[in-house]
Amino acid sequence: MDPIFDDFRKGYAEWDGYKVSQTLTPIPPASNPQKLYNFFRSTNFATVQKDFKYQLVYNTTPFKLPADEANGWVEVYHAYWKAVGEILNAENAPRSSTKGAWIKVYDSWKELINALIRGYSNHGFEAWTVPCLYVAGKFLRIFAIKADEGTGTGNGAITSFQDDFNPEAEKNEKLEDAARQLNRIFQICLADREPLDESRKWGIYNIINLLFKTYFKLNSISLSKNILKAIQAYRGDMPTLESFPKAHQVTFKYYIGVIYFLEENYVESEKNLTEAWQLCHKDAVRNKELILTYLIPCHLLTTHTLPTLALLSPYPRLQKLFLPLSRCIKKGDLAGFDAALVAGEDEFVKRRIYLTLERGRDIALRNLLRKVFVAGGFEEAKDPAAPAVRRTRIPVAEFGAAISIGSKETMDNDEVECLLANMIYRNLMKGYIARERGIVVLSKGGAFPGTGV
């Protein structure tokens, strides 16, 4: 028992909320793997409140907590002690009863959340202790997922958890409840009326990021907009985003970028994802990989830019996903593009980038048509001193032949004309179709905008 309360007293004496929050983590440090077990065995159900009250009310040198606040912390650590007991039971539970064990863990951890909320609402917990809400909220979400899935035992499952979309999950009872509890924490921080220097609003973006992760896991991304509306309503009473830790900024901008991406607002998505990329720590490889997963398709549509091998070299998974598509787009290989899209379909759909990448076929087609234009050579100049001008009147049949070869499908002239009209409409080509003569008349001042041809 003493190590945890010794750390609490040190953190409290230094006004270090992160140090205090580490006394509420469900993962023991590598230097003391038996810490949680020893803490749970240090007391029992009959004497736990008495023992904790002694530690927090009477044995608090070199400072003394106000009685009401001290009683609030007694409730918090009592709930934490019960949750630790359930965690130890779940880690040792037989496989047949794993799900029930993790449901008990979730319910007991929820009691810890409730005790913390009461602490801020009724017992005067100070704003600098909000990292305790970060830790409690983070693991509430993780335990909810474990309870719903009924999988995972031991600390390894906690630390290796990845935040992926989960559109196929049907039963998320505990995770939905966790979202409600996290929203309560969000409101506790957002509605604080203390001056900004002493406000719980400094914890707002960490909790928002937890809510975003939870809504994405629940496939309820539209709920994220309610959070954004609430932030907007309090905008004048909150610190600017740039005032928060970079880790909070990166995660927030990443999720905002993904939300815009899913709304097909690729310009705003690219802006937020680029900012997240620039702020991201150079060694945060996993985070950079997640950002690039959406930033690469954004660049493809907004600037027609393909990722380089140098950019993708640290990310083998992204190389596997994007390099085949990039090569086919560059070459104008329509059949190869279709094959690469099918090969990565499962991952593209999981990440919800399939439909966006599918639009890359237009870029591949543009590159194929440009090759036809370049292969057409130059027109004979009437004035020998005049600069050479590329042939700009190209038979539809020539484009049709190239498209049929590139897609490995025979296409008639009407289908080809339809594709060419679509390319002109999207400003991927400049010119017009002269149907009566069966030719395409391309612009002499940049037939394929942005390509340098």
Structure explained in plain terms:
The protein is mostly helical. Helices cover 62% and strands 2% of the residues. It has 22 helices and three strands. A hairpin with a 4-residue loop joins β2 (431-434) and β3.
In short:
This protein is an all-alpha fold and 453 residues long.
Estimate the global geometry from the Cα principal axes: elongated
Q: Estimate the strand proportion.
A: under 5%
As laid out across the biggest beta sheet, the strand order is 1-3-2
Q: How many structural domains are formed by the residues?
A: 3
Could you give the count of β-strands? Answer: 3
**Quaternary state, please?**
single chain
End-to-end distance: 74 Å
InterPro entries: Csn12-like, PCI_dom, WH-like_DNA-bd_sf
Family: Belongs to the CSN12 family.
Pfam families: PCI
GO molecular function: double-stranded DNA binding; RNA binding
What's the topology here?
Blueprint: H1 2-13, H2 17-21, H3 35-41, H4 48-58, H5 67-91, H6 98-122, H7 131-149, H8 155-159, H9 173-190, H10 204-217, H11 224-233, H12 246-262, H13 266-279, H14 285-302, H15 309-312, H16 316-331, H17 334-343, H18 345-350, H19 354-358, H20 360-375, E1 393-395, H21 396-407, H22 413-425, E2 431-434, E3 439-442
Antiparallel strand pairs: 1-3, 2-3
List keywords for this structure.
3 strands, 22 helices, 453 residues, three-stranded antiparallel sheet, Arc Repressor Mutant, subunit A, mainly alpha
